[in-house]
Amino acid sequence: MYLNLCFLYSVISKLLDPQSAAIVGASPKPGTVGYVLLENLATRFKGRAYPVNPKYDVVELWGRKIKFYKSLLEVEDDIDVAVIATPAPTVPKILEEAGQKGIKAAVVISSGFAEAGNVELENWVKAVAKQYGIRLLGPNCIGVYNAYTNFDTQFLPVERAGRPPPGPIALISQSGAVATAIMDWAARRRLGMGFVVNYGNKADVTEVELLEAFAEDERVKVITMYMEGLKYPGEAKRLLDTVRRIAPKKPIVVYKAGRGSTAAQRAVRSHTAAMAGTYEMYHGLFKQAGAIEASSVREMFDMAKALATQPTPRGPRVLVVTDSGGMGVQAVDALEALGLEVPEVPESIAKELKRELLPFAAVSNPIDVTGSATDEHYKIVLDMLLPTAFFDMALVVTLMQVPGLTKNLAEYIIGAKKYGKPIVAVNFGGSELVQKFEEALEDSGVPTYPTPERAAKALWALYRYSQVRRRL
Amino acid sequence: MYLNLCFLYSVISKLLDPQSAAIVGASPKPGTVGYVLLENLATRFKGRAYPVNPKYDVVELWGRKIKFYKSLLEVEDDIDVAVIATPAPTVPKILEEAGQKGIKAAVVISSGFAEAGNVELENWVKAVAKQYGIRLLGPNCIGVYNAYTNFDTQFLPVERAGRPPPGPIALISQSGAVATAIMDWAARRRLGMGFVVNYGNKADVTEVELLEAFAEDERVKVITMYMEGLKYPGEAKRLLDTVRRIAPKKPIVVYKAGRGSTAAQRAVRSHTAAMAGTYEMYHGLFKQAGAIEASSVREMFDMAKALATQPTPRGPRVLVVTDSGGMGVQAVDALEALGLEVPEVPESIAKELKRELLPFAAVSNPIDVTGSATDEHYKIVLDMLLPTAFFDMALVVTLMQVPGLTKNLAEYIIGAKKYGKPIVAVNFGGSELVQKFEEALEDSGVPTYPTPERAAKALWALYRYSQVRRRL
């Protein structure tokens, strides 16, 4: 059994990270799905790419000659994955050829299967895959984006849909369009996402297996999941067991869409033919298993960013440092609403702080260095308080609009990482200084957020994860 | 009494929208507060500016000769507002000169009053202002930003803290730094904010009077308020009465910071010496009076943007159109959680839609035109459903990453405004197409949001406002 599982995982990791790929349905005609796939794999993929299309022989593209194969069987080299983007009725035959060629993994992009009412065709495809021992992702999916090798079966051109840089976050998405939009958004924000997978109709490879594969991949530090609903009996139990096993080792952040009543159920059903189930059921399942639940796509990545870069806190006590009293108040509101603590600064330390900061600074928690603060004031507070046993993490508000702050402040905040406690920052505004400052922090592993509420939720996720680690 | 009130309001509107201003403490030295104020008012203000500083005579600045006056009394022309940025102890004497000169309004930027423990000095300033009938904003404030005339007493340079373009939103902020950060953020997003006022220690002019002034100004379509707490006995009652009177005519959106327990109270007290009060008290007050409450600064502007541009809906029924089933599901979740309705499409219309849209489109509500949609599919849905009596507003999700959509879609959505019902859009991503599309919509008065949750909250605010209008 163990060997068998290992074998399965290694095929799935090949599906996610192949050395070679065939593109069946590759096309030299710009504007087609087959062209985008060919461009992705022939010009950016770090592995070997084999275009398959009987209509073409050798075509000059991107300044070089591209050879098209008549069929998979014509390719002489080994192929890790067959990417299939031909009309639905042709897929069973192509899969059969893949099987004969000894290919063990396929991504079926094509639509026109169960989602369009063609359940029998989908069952036929499943049967062929099973017969040849092919693990199949899809059909009706955007497949895989691997930022490390640019194995990329997303069929929208880069100009329209950006691709994120490599990084510690993996996404498993039930919705193709949501995955595409997330990638485009992450690309703009330089959010590192090593892997994005959309499994479409889930004829074979399931989200549970993808979870397992990412659990094993050391480049993945946080797994995010966008889910609408499960499909088959027994899946909830398997998901529960898998999350429970993985979560203590690697954080899993889940956003479950389709929470509401009839209209939400109707929407889920018509979208992925999945049953949304009562939201309470999923909520209970995630909580019990140790997944961290987000209440929106954005929040999922706010949390993932912190989980991927910050150490696990030892407790719920947050130090708040701010140059805006108003932002400090908002931070405390948000932290307390989430059940985190904002304890007072012990009197002896407060006295010492009083000497070092401006006379009108507030030296209790939140510590308000005021709008007249300099970079050094933040350094003093962080160095004096973060190493003590009184605080488990820090939320640092830096409204850079005040006159005394410079980009050097980033170094001081990054420097405080040496105390081994989570630090998140809040920046708000739009000037170049704000943007540069944010980039400096993010590039050195200090996640930044535009509002105190979002930063607080990220700290909450870290604290929640510390409990998952402890409990399980 | 009526005449007296009118007189008061006209002085306050002069304070917010003067034709002429003196800058006491103006300085030719870059990097000082007096320099930024001088630069604001001498180079960008559309009215007349009179620098006052006995240390200087005529100085060449920005390629022209700037005359400095020795005192306010030396200026021969009439002055609407004295902007005072000299050390705190000098302020009473300067106010006295303003009074002798017949100036009726002053913005005192200087700090070092009650907020620093100098209560007597602040009382003295109040007494002088009262004696001469001067209405005084501050002290310890950033004062006024008027985007129409660039009357701008914000003392941070534009490079560090952006200024928003003119527009229908006014902000009354208890926190100076929060106001500054909001302006910088709004400037980047091109969010139109005609007026921003921070009242600092509130020695004289109060938030209630500012509310009254904005209620009267036709350029202001929505009033936003950032509050931490009230200060004096009887203020809650006055605020309640004022909001109740204004709200049915002009929407008021409030974000009250300082909601939590001891730590939040502590933070508010040390920040503005105000009592946070129980949050429940404020919540009850706002609800009763007809203010729309936001739960964060960002949400306040999400709502304000919709209230400033959209008609009042007749009911809670939302039409959801989407090209991503997943986003549709999220929208329904969010709408239903807020008590809005997502009714089914009547069968006869659904049949007709079925003929016009793609065969695998979902024609119930949410209507999923699918990732294969073209611009025209959105037009068909909006034209067929929005004019009917079945829907009161529309939430349109346009993930522009899908291949069939172009920037023309913006025109169709903007065109649907003719049905006189609120429309908000959801866009997510980062490519240039997404950004251009968003700008086109926003510039034509269709507010866009990056997540379905935020768009739903904006529709909720519109519905809530329709109830305020009806009820009061």
UniProtKB/TrEMBL annotation, chains A, B:
PANTHER family with a match to the protein in the record: ACETATE--COA LIGASE [ADP-FORMING]
> Taxonomically, what lineage is the organism?
Archaea, Thermoproteota, Thermoprotei, Thermoproteales, Thermoproteaceae
> Has UniProt tagged this entry with the keyword ATP-binding?
yes
Instruction: Keyword check for Nucleotide-binding, yes or no.
Output: yes
Q: What is this protein called?
A: CoA-binding domain protein
Looking up SUPFAM superfamilies in the UniProt record yields: NAD(P)-binding Rossmann-fold domains, Succinyl-CoA synthetase domains
Q: Where is the CoA-binding domain?
A: 15-113
Q: Which residues form a coiled coil?
A: none
Q: Name one GO molecular function term.
A: acetate-CoA ligase (ADP-forming) activity
Q: Which UniProt keywords apply?
A: ATP-binding, Ligase, Nucleotide-binding
- Which Pfam families does the protein's record reference? CoA_binding_2, Ligase_CoA_2, Succ_CoA_lig
Gene3D superfamilies from the entry?
NAD(P)-binding Rossmann-like Domain, Succinyl-CoA synthetase domains
